[in-house]
Amino acid sequence: MKIPEEWLNRSKHKVNEIFEEVRNYCSLKAPLPIKSMIETYMEDVNYVVSMDYEFPEGVSAFSQKDMDIGWLIVINGKEIVERQRFSAAHEFGHITLLTNQAKKVFCSKDSDSWDEKLCDRFAGDILMPEIMIRELYKSTPSPYLEDIAKIFKVSRPVAEIQLRRLQLPFKKRY
User: Fold this and answer.
1) Which terminus of the chain is more solvent-facing, meaning fewer CB atoms within 10 Å of its CB: N or C?
2) What is the pLDDT of residues 63-98, one digit of tens each?
3) Are 53 and 80 spatial neighbours (Cβ–Cβ below 8 Å)?
4) What is the pLDDT of residue 103?
5) Which is it for strands 45-50 and 59-66: parallel, antiparallel or unpaired?
6) Is 158 in the same domain as 119?
7) DSSP label at 48?
8) What residues in the chain have per-residue pLDDT under 50?
9) What's phi and psi for 52, nearest 5 deg?
10) Are 119 and 136 in a shared domain?
11) Residues 123 and 134 in one domain
């Protein structure tokens, strides 16, 4: 299902708003400190990496609103750090973009709904901002995908999606 244009615009605006808000408090150099960005932007968030919680099959994280403590973002600590970062950014998207969502949201990587795709797009944009990617390309016109993924601390598929969306060339080592 395609993401409505209105929501793509909201997401882009929200990413810019977040960067403007946190730039004086967080280092905005790759890899971006997603945990610090979330905690700086939202005062009522608790970010937890859990090794104990039993996540449902195909679920890497969830967000939940608690009336006493605020938002809770729980990340599956058994997954690789790149996946944890993406999952945190994805949940951040749910909280900041989809403000009327259920009190608890489990996100499956197999979901094809437009709101899940929107949060994936948000996560990619916040972990790999276009301005930072284009700056990188000034010094390295045709970099290797694996190097870009490593610089931004994202998976190769996330890096590839962002670069293809921006129509930027890259090479693959393997």
Assistant:
1) C
2) 888 888 889 999 999 999 999 999 999 999 999 998
3) no
4) 58
5) unpaired
6) no
7) E
8) none
9) -100, -35
10) no
11) no
How many separate helices (H) and strands (E) can be counted in the chain? 7, 4
Nearest Cα neighbor of 76 from 85, 68, 67, 64 is 85
Beta bridge partners of 71: 45, 65
Distance CA 14, CA 17 (A): 5
* H/E run at residue 66: strand 59-66
Does one domain contain both 26 and 110?
Answer: yes
Predicted TM-score (pTM) of this structure: 0.91
If one counts the domains in the chain, the total is 2
**Under a CB-based contact definition with an 8 Å cutoff, are residues 126 and 14 in contact?**
no
- If asked whether residues 61 and 9 sit together in one domain, one would say yes
Which tokens is 69 given? 């403590």
Give the range of the structural domain holding residue 121, as residue numbers without chain letter.
Answer: 5-127
27 and 69 fall within a common domain: yes
Rounded distance between C-alpha atoms, residue 111 and residue 131, angstroms: 29
Say yes or no: 98 and 134 in one domain: no
Q: How far apart are CA 88 and CA 123, in angstroms?
A: 8
Q: Are residues 59 and 98 in the same domain?
A: yes
* Unique residue bearing structure tokens 């693959």: 172
